[in-house]
Amino acid sequence: MTHRAASRTQGIEPFYVMEIVKEAQRLTEAGRSIIHLSIGEPDFSAPPPVQAAAVKAIDAGLTQYTPALGTDALRQAIAADYARRFQLAVDPERVVVTAGASGALLLALAALLERDRTVLMPDPSYPCNRHFAAVLEGRAQLLPCCPETRFQPTAEMIEAAWTAETAGVLLASPSNPTGTSIEQPVLAAIVDRARARSGFLIVDEIYQGLTYDHPPSTALSLSEDVLALASFSKYFNMTGWRLGWLVAPRALVPTLEKLAQNLFICPSAIAQHAALACFSAEALAIYEARREEFRRRRDFLVPALRDLGFDVPVVPDGAFYIYAGISRFAANSWDFAFDLLREAGVCLVPGRDFGAAQTAQYVRVSYANKQERLEAAVDRMDRYLRRRL
Ligand SMILES: Cc1ncc(COP(=O)(O)O)c(C=O)c1O
Predict the structure, then answer these.
(1) Ligand 1 centroid – CA 19 distance (Å)
(2) Residue 316 in contact with ligand 1 by CB distance below 6 A
(3) Where does residue 196 rank: exposed (0-12), middle (13-18), buried (19+ CB within 10 A)?
(4) 200 FRET partner, CA 20 to 30 A, in 159, 214, 299, 376?
């Protein structure tokens, strides 16, 4: 037998962040106290009404396969939530329930990306996106984005990068790792460019709901041609439940359905039944209180990092990340993050996972941790940086 990995796997990089997380683990086991500002998931678990709904579903034996596109009840509840939040009528038939945003990204790209075609995406951006393209034997083309455009591409940048090989664009708003959103007029111009070029536009709205300076928005308000995806992972605090969704143009749904049937059969039945409780008044009140907590943490941490000498060129308006420049302290964020971890016991994510352009000068700081831990981390970094400078 030979088990030579298929060539399509060769360009796929591991999560480099795991190297630093492993080191943090080793130090913890050796008795050191480590504060994680590295976490990409809320520090809250699903609220009590959602947990109770899951237990009820199990007790009632609602654990069989569901339709591949998700239960009618959940597709309708998700559509109703667009009406509630955005005054937007979304046909439930366009809602495809998936195994997290990850499932939605895979389905969308599998449906749309031809082999050897490219997808334009920002640098920095969520690392898995370029690897989804690679698994499908397409390619990511990274567009270096700077603070002046909130680390997001503009319509002009997309137009300039578009070639005969370009199949479409994949954006995230708010973004991981920068926490910045694309302003609606900019997004509207991008929709126009993608349409003019007969390409697709996928907008990852996984951090939808977690915005702090403006009401949340959706690309679906701009056009029914956009594929918008979201998740129960972040705002709804359900990372491990593996549930998300995609809203697609009507004509694409049969293709997505046959892909979903073959690749996944269906998303988790228990998670789907539980997720219905996310939209109850009781759960929504809890989510909004938690969103406020994230906003308070951001408002503490951005000025605190600036006082320490980090460069935070754009105040993030969403998610729970701050993209912070470390050029004042070091030439390379990889070495800086390891040294900070070992010397000060604070774990940050070096920019390396998120692209190539300027990622050596940045770290991602997550505030998905309790306020007192954030304060302790700032004290530790203060002492460390005083020694270092
Ligand atoms: C931008 C972005 N998209 C997609 C995902 C995948 O999330 P999930 O599959 O848990 O919904 C993440 C997770 O961190 C993310 O940050």
Answers:
(1) 20
(2) no
(3) exposed
(4) 214
332 within ligand 1 shell (Cβ under 6 A): no
Give per-residue pLDDT as tens, 268-312.
999 999 999 999 999 999 999 999 999 999 999 999 999 999 999
Residue 152's pLDDT is 98
Other Cβ atoms within 10 Å of 240 Cβ, number? 11
256 CA to centre of ligand 1 in angstroms: 19
Coil, strand or helix: which one is 54?
helix
Nearest-atom number in ligand 1 for the CA of 319 is 16
User: What is the per-residue pLDDT across 170-228, written as a single tens digit (0 to 9) for each?
Assistant: 999 999 999 999 999 999 999 999 999 999 999 999 999 999 999 989 999 999 999 99
Atom 13 (ligand 1) nearest CA: 40
Distance from Cα 136 to the centre of ligand 1, integer Å = 19
Going by the DSSP 8-state scheme, the letter that residue 31 receives in this structure is T
Nearest to 40 by CA among 371, 376, 320, 360: 320
Q: Which atom of ligand 1 is nearest to the CA of 126?
A: 1
Is the shortest distance between the CB of 40 and ligand 1 below 6 Å?
A: yes
Neighbours of 203 (CB within 10 A): 24
Q: Are 47 and 280 in contact (CB under 8 A)?
A: no
Which of 39, 98, 107, 126 gets mutated to test ligand 1 (max ligand atoms within 8 A of its CB)? 126
- Does the predicted TM-score (pTM) go above 0.85? yes
In the sheet with 244-247, reading across from the earlier edge strand, the strands are: 95-98, 244-247, 227-231, 200-204, 166-172, 118-123, 139-144
With bands split at pLDDT 50, 70 and 90, how would you rate the model's confidence at 13? confident
Q: Is the CB of 241 under 6 A from ligand 1?
A: no
| 126 C-beta closer than 6 A to ligand 1 | yes
pLDDT in tens, 53-80: 999 999 999 999 999 999 999 999 999 9
pLDDT band for 14, please (50, 70, 90 cuts).
Answer: confident
